[in-house]
Structures are given as structure tokens and as C-alpha cells.
Design a protein that fits this description.
Layout lengths: L1 H29 L8 H31 L1 H34 L12 H19 L6 H6 L11 E7 L4 E6 L5 E5 L2 E5 L2 H10 L1 H6 L5 H4 L6
Antiparallel strand pairs: 1-2, 2-3, 3-4
Helix pairs in contact: 2-3, 3-4
Length: 226
């Protein structure tokens, strides 16, 4: 059941965006095209720019931007960049179409002006359409950072003393009504002050002593080293 639920979530969150981004690539090929240009050079250049942008975007967002701004702000920045990219692309297509019509046409028709009212409205609508989805991006639920995909199985959530998003993982510190504190890393409890967890964590402290050739009080005080 969990697999089917995760599959539906991935389809809902990723499939529409993947289809739209894939459909935008032919438009990216049309935007810089000009009459008489080598098609192989054009396609190679666009593919190279797309590959370089994918590498820089994946690295920059995951390593820098999310750690700096958080997931919500990073998504808003991504929506803004997408809107600007669409604006530049459509403006380039409109301008290229006008240049083509001007080259073919020998008369000076007022309707052949580079920026008609319809074109201007289209270019102004694109940034406006990006404002609503960027503004509607919700904050990342604290419970999601703490429990991940198992959040739906929890009927009661503790108080969260700390929630943070970093370069390698998202962490949270929670406290229940009985005073038990838990340390969460990317949706999983890694340590807590509960009695059963403390017993295990104390047992982990015996491992260095078992590995040391001469364990003793001096070693525990740091006087001896392995």
C-alpha cells in the first residue's frame, strides 16, 4: 500500500512538470534559430546549454540555495526563474517571427511592428501568472521533516523545539508532553531520551572500549589513544 501511495505522489508531483519541461525544449530550439543557420550547431549548442544549466541548477539549489533560503523560498525562486526564462524565450520567438515577416514583406505595414498589443499582453501576462503559484507555496510542515512519509500515520504531533534545513539533511528536535525529546534527521528518529533508546545508546558507548587493546580509566579520560 505504501508503494502505491508513493507512486501516486510521485506521479502527481513530478509527471506534469516533467512533461511541460520536455515540451518546452522544442521551443528552446526555435528561439535562437535563424535563417540559414546550421541545424546541427544549433541543436548542439542548445543541448550543451541545457546540460550545463541542469548541472548548475541541481548543484546550486541542493547545495547552496536550499541551505540558505529553505525549501519554500527556493521553490519560489525556481518559479521566478522559470517565468523569466519563459518570458525571454517567447520574446525571442516573437522578435524572430517579426524579423522573418519583415524580410519576406516588401511593404511597410503598420501591423508588422515588432511589438503589437497582443504580443505585449502576452509578455506581460507571463510574469503575472507566476505570482500566484509562487505566493501559494506553503511552508514545509514540521511533521514532514520529522517523520517523512510516515507523517500520515501520526495522530498526535509533539512540540518542535527546532526545525532546520541544511545542505545534507533536514533536522528537527521534538518534545512530547512527558518531556521525552527526539532528534529527527530527514524523516527518521535517530536518537531520543526515551528509556529504551537511552539503553541502546549507552550500549553503543561500550563499542570503543571493546575495540581498544587496553581499556581502562585513563583511556576513558583521554590519557591514552588508540
Amino acid at each position: 500500500m505504501n508503494f502505491q501511495l508513493d507512486l501516486v505522489r510521485c506521479l502527481w508531483a513530478i509527471l506534469p512538470a516533467a512533461c511541460l519541461w520536455g515540451a518546452s525544449f522544442p521551443l528552446a530550439l526555435v528561439a535562437p534559430a535563424s535563417r540559414g543557420q546550421d541545424p546541427g550547431r544549433l541543436v548542439g549548442g542548445v543541448y550543451a546549454a541545457n546540460t550545463l544549466g541542469a548541472i548548475m541548477g541541481a548543484t546550486g539549489f541542493s547545495v547552496l540555495l536550499i541551505a540558505w533560503l529553505g525549501t519554500r523560498r527556493a521553490q519560489q525562486v525556481l518559479i521566478g526563474i522559470s517565468a523569466v526564462s519563459a518570458l525571454v524565450m517567447f520574446e525571442s520567438i516573437f522578435w524572430q517571427a517579426w524579423r522573418t515577416r519583415k524580410t519576406v514583406s516588401s511593404h511597410n505595414d503598420p501591423s508588422e511592428r515588432p511589438l503589437t498589443l497582443r504580443t505585449a499582453l502576452a509578455l506581460l501576462t507571463l510574469p503575472g501568472l507566476a505570482v500566484l503559484p509562487a505566493w501559494s507555496v506553503p511552508e514545509v510542515p514540521k511533521g514532514l521533516i520529522a517523520y517523512g512519509r510516515y507523517l500520515a500515520t501520526w495522530t498526535y504531533l509533539p512540540d518542535f523545539l527546532y526545525v532546520g534545513e541544511g545542505m545534507n539533511a533536514s533536522v528537527a528536535v521534538s518534545e512530547y508532553l512527558d518531556g521525552t525529546r527526539s532528534f529527527h534527521v530527514s524523516g527518521k528518529v535517530e536518537a531520543s531520551s526515551a528509556s529504551q533508546d537511552m539503553r541502546l545508546q549507552r550500549m553503543l558507548g561500550h563499542i570503543p572500549g571493546l575495540m581498544h587493546p587496553h581499556p581502562g580509566p585513563r583511556w576513558w579520560l583521554g590519557a591514552e589513544r588508540v
